[in-house]
carbonic anhydrase
Amino acid sequence: MSRLLDDIIDYNRSFVEQQKYEPYLTSKFPDKKFVILTCMDTRLIELLPASMNIKNGDVKMIKSAGGVVSTAFGGIMRSIIVAIYELGAEEVLVIGHYDCGMGAINPHAMKEKFLARGIEEGTLEILEHSGLHIERWLKGFDDVTESIRSSVSLIRNHPLVPKIPIHGLVIDPKTGKLDVVDEGYAFLER
């Protein structure tokens, strides 16, 4: 039976030896000077950049389940702040998508899956007693546009984010059509 990592390493060895990396050479600084936070959905891997005329080296891309900023001082927010201050990003785009799996997450059912995969009930109880409300932590969203607006607001009002355009969009994962739900330039003009 072939193992995934073995296949990846075999391909990578050939990729490097044949110098197939050369078309992707760029710097760590985004040429188009913006950062995108989007969902980790597999349909967006190539569709999102193609629909926005983005190529390797153009932007900083951050991916998470649902493209959501759920806390002001977590890893997603830290990545956005690093992109702004250290990597030259001058605008932020938060891009969700229709038919997102985070809209259908059932936290109770996921807890059952934890147990089925060998996580002990006692572990879940310890987490709950430690202050992690697992079902709230795992809960997705009911409306992708409201979720995007919420993340945009959190970024825009973060004490460490300068006054720059923060935009919210939703992409159709079939066609690539972008709908603007919060245009950051208008907010700056207020």
Residues 26-105+140-188 form a domain with the Beta-carbonic Anhydrase; Chain A fold (CATH 3.40.1050.10).
